Amino acid sequence: MGGEDTSPEDGGTRAAYAADLAARGKARPWPPPRNSPCWCGSNCKYKKCCGSPALR
Prior knowledge:
Elements: H1 11-23
C-alpha cells in the first residue's frame, strides 16, 4: 500500500486502503447498524454516540 507520500484526500489512496482491508477480511459495512457498538471505542451504541443526529 502507500507510504508517507500518499494523501487521504486522494480517492485512489482511499480505494487502495479499502481494498487492502477487504483482502485481509477486516472490511466493515458503513454506516454500522444503529444498535451496533460504536466504532470509536466508547462502548456505547452507535445510535447514541457517533450516529446520533444531534451530533451532525
